[in-house]
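Technical appendix A lists one of the benchmark inputs used to test multi-chain prediction within the project. The record comprises two sequence entries:
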Amino acid sequence: MDSISVKTSTNEYAVSIGPGLRFQMERFINKSYSKIFIITDSNVEPLYLPDVLQSLEPSFPVNYTVVPAGESSKSARVYFDIITEVIQSGLDRDSLIIALGGGMVGDLAGFVAATFMRGIDFIQMPTTILAHDSSVGGKVAINHPEGKNLIGSFYPPQAVVYDVDTLHTIPLMEIRSGYAEIVKHSFIHDQPFWEDIEEVDLTKPLLDDQLMNHLFRGIQVKANIVELDEKESNIRQYLNFGHTLGHALESELGYGKLTHGEAVAIGMLFAIKVSEAHFHTELPYQSLFEWLKRNHYPIALPPTINVNNLINRMKKDKKAKKQSVQMVLLRELGEPITESIEDFTLIGLLEQFLRELVDR
Amino acid sequence: MDSISVKTSTNEYAVSIGPGLRFQMERFINKSYSKIFIITDSNVEPLYLPDVLQSLEPSFPVNYTVVPAGESSKSARVYFDIITEVIQSGLDRDSLIIALGGGMVGDLAGFVAATFMRGIDFIQMPTTILAHDSSVGGKVAINHPEGKNLIGSFYPPQAVVYDVDTLHTIPLMEIRSGYAEIVKHSFIHDQPFWEDIEEVDLTKPLLDDQLMNHLFRGIQVKANIVELDEKESNIRQYLNFGHTLGHALESELGYGKLTHGEAVAIGMLFAIKVSEAHFHTELPYQSLFEWLKRNHYPIALPPTINVNNLINRMKKDKKAKKQSVQMVLLRELGEPITESIEDFTLIGLLEQFLRELVDR
């Protein structure tokens, strides 16, 4: 088992990564909680809930709730219903919430923990590769019909328990989605990390050692950044590399057409293209492009996609300030920087980029 | 104008107390906010909203919303509707929310600020005496049908701007309610503070100097305690002096029968009674009792009130731990301490106390 420690303004927590951790939950719980309440979803429940229950029930009174899998459960309605269940299960300030699932479950359960009785302890148990990203850093939220994650808090967990066994049951599309965020962590960090990822073949069964190594290093990049800027006033923005166009594509195409990571993958390609133009430099555009193709990432976008709509959406991004689009660019691989890009420049580059994707 | 500085784990803010502050809001805003959104209620709107708008509009784009006065606006429904208005008004992470009103508005608007886009700045502008308490200390919340303040955060404001002019328009019942919390602050602090309050006559127009002095000292007591224990793990519990029975009375009689402070006043009398029995000491029970009578606090409770129900409610208190009732007692005036009281003892003392109240 590997472990990374993350310091926040209010606590310090360990991210533990290894096989079979779901059978050893008592190792990660070091308070005498009055009750434990597990929040999971309908995909994860049949696979892993019984194991987690079995490892907790000898020591704690445990209740749980299962929400429908999918982003639509990150709603105010579901949030409020869970709060009601939590109250009716008799949880108090000395109780613990466990988020067992992917990013949706972590965000939802984390926001319940952040706001029930003004905040009680919670533990993240991510079960997807993508959640290596969302489970670390303390961002929790639910969606509003007007936009994703508009209601939320910064609320760090007490621990992140990452059982890599659970990653072998996720579909290829979700593996791609999660690996895109690992790629992002490598691009904003350094060349050797990216070169290691370049060797992975996502279409074959993942090798435990390789996967754990990539997750460990990805989490380390993220942890270092959030320790320096917990509330995203500054360098935490670097984690949005690839996300400006990524988010715009997700909402323009309609959620679910591309996974989050697939949209971010295209967003990273574009961010590299813009970086090359902006800094008159050369970056591994070609090697990322080929790796994405080799691993069957969807790359060509529908020719009907509208450049002006995309740019308007990039401006509406939660992180947008003022009028022009803010993008995280790379001066060099491993040297992220936030820059304002004028509409005129952006339109030209985006049109050229979209044409190139179709041509290839 | 007087000012008290409050340090929290994440910021430091000033509580400014004085007349006419609502006309000088620009003095208290030291960032270039993209937008300001004021949340107020239907009682306060006609009295003070125009003044606040007038003092802000030259410098900022301002929107506002008015919720119905009364505790029922502290609901998930109203909260969500305000979030929607806030989004539609175009607020972003660089915007400011102002809570203009009593404790209900402060709690509700504070929770909106705490959770919109994972937290944006907010300023408390309390307009009641009771809110001298709730506006300082960073507790924000909404109610759940199962209990008050069950959904909330610890989220400090950027500033508290307390215009004492606004306190002359509140009804006598609300003056009594607010003064009960000042009395509480004196009892957990020291004798001289209580002796000063003892001289006030709430049935006559309040004298500005005296009121400001009492508010200032009450806020200082509170600020000192929350600085030492922001998240209520420890000595912040002392602020619950009088609240264990107070909360039980409020819910047993039905909210609205007694104001919060009136219920706390009876709760303090009882807490003093229990303290005297527990520590074999003598406390100013009689002088508090007489002050309450002189100022027309409702003291006699309906003879039908059920002692067992009250004790069960005292056990359900959000702050209750384990099985027996926890109460804040006084070893001496100014020396609070949290103690567990056995049911057997509590029943006897409560029955005797209720009989005495009726007899007098």
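Chain B has two domains: 2-169, 172-359. The longest helix of chain B spans residues 208-228. Comparable benchmark entries are summarised in Table A2.
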